[in-house]
Design brief:
Elements lengths: L10 H13 L2 H8 L3 H15 L4 E4 L2 E4 L1 H21 L11 E6 L2 H18 L3 E6 L7 H4 L5 E4 L8 E9 L1 E5 L10 H6 L1 E5 L8 H8 L5 E6 L5 H5 L6 E4 L11 E4 L7 E8 L6 H17 L2
Parallel strand pairs: 3-4, 3-5, 8-9
Antiparallel strand pairs: 1-2, 5-12, 6-12, 7-10, 7-11
Helix pairs in contact: 1-2, 1-3, 1-4, 2-3, 5-10
């Protein structure tokens, strides 16, 4: 009989196990959880040692759960459900709730996710007010110091007290005014073209610019703006290019043409992140669930 080392078990680790079991993939579980693939792999390895079973083995190009993992999965799900019920505290009544919920987000995330969230609040929880503040590239201190309750960002700090969950994915594309120019056909043409880029008010550049610099490449940046809202007026009627998330073609950059980037670049994985002290807060959890539902609707 296996003896379980309980000191290597925690609810987050068990949630990781269930995600890998559900997805049959470490990489897909990482996306679902909003974690890095290496963090998921490390957690699975700790669980193997604690539970005394391989849990997942190679099968073709993927992985397959062991008999022990399949048998244990439903029990772990039941344990987590019971723990959540135990820690939920008093029932949350959205219709009578009265408080302000502060979310840090840049204008892209704000305009994409928060107006539909506000419509839901108006129907279900009219006493909850949203306060939206800019996030730049956020650090954990925003959450630790209670500057905000939640952050929406593609950049999650890798610290143990900050919890994250994936919301949706997007791709970076090129935006341009088709009445003035055509899309760049090559990487060299893309780099030579004049660009409008985002330099956040906090001084950080976008991940795309940092990725290009890491490859020893540089664009011809003609103008920088402090947020994505500055892009449309600089693009309209000019030969400038802007590299931005593709979903902006349905909102801020509606009417501009798009083209794929002429080089490989990772997807934008939008996350919501919060401090662990709010993990079991019933009102906070209710709002996180509503935001996740908004994101799921946008992904379909």
């Amino acid at each position: 009989m296996k003896t379980v080392d309980q000191f290597h078990l925690d609810t987050r680790s068990l949630e990781v196990f269930l995600a890998v079991l559900r997805e049959n993939s470490v990489s897909r579980a990482a996306v679902t959880l909003g974690m890095s693939q290496s963090a998921v792999s490390h957690t699975v390895e700790r669980l193997r040692q604690a539970l005394g079973d391989p849990l997942f083995v190679k099968s073709g190009r993927g992985i397959a759960p062991t008999r022990y993992a399949l048998k244990t999965g439903p029990h772990i799900q039941q344990i987590l459900d019971e723990l959540r019920a135990l820690s939920a505290g008093p029932p949350f009544e959205p219709a009578s709730a009265e408080f302000t919920f502060t979310i840090a987000a840049n204008d892209y995330q704000r305009d994409l996710l928060l107006p539909p969230l506000m419509k839901q609040l108006a129907l279900e929880a009219p006493g909850i007010r949203l306060q939206v503040i800019p996030s730049g590239i956020p650090g954990p201190e925003l959450l630790r110091e209670d500057v905000c309750d939640l952050i929406i960002t593609p950049h999650a700090p890798d610290t143990g007290d900050i919890i994250q969950k994936g919301l949706l994915r997007d791709q970076m594309v090129i935006f341009y005014d088709p009445s003035v120019r055509s899309a760049p056909a090559t990487l060299a043409e893309y780099l030579r073209a004049r660009h409008v880029d985002v330099l956040f008010g906090t001084g950080e550049r976008t991940g795309l610019e940092n990725a290009l610099r890491a490859r020893g490449l540089s664009r011809n940046i003609a103008v920088t703006v402090s947020n994505f809202s500055g892009l449309p007026e600089f693009l309209r009627g000019t030969d400038l290019l802007a590299s931005a998330p593709s979903r902006m073609q349905h909102q801020l950059l509606r009417g501009f043409a798009t083209a794929p980037l002429p080089f490989d670049y990772r997807d934008v994985n939008l996350l919501m992140i919060w401090h662990q002290r709010y993990q079991t807060d019933s009102g906070h959890r209710w709002l996180r669930n509503r935001l996740a539902a908004v994101a799921r609707h946008l992904d379909h």
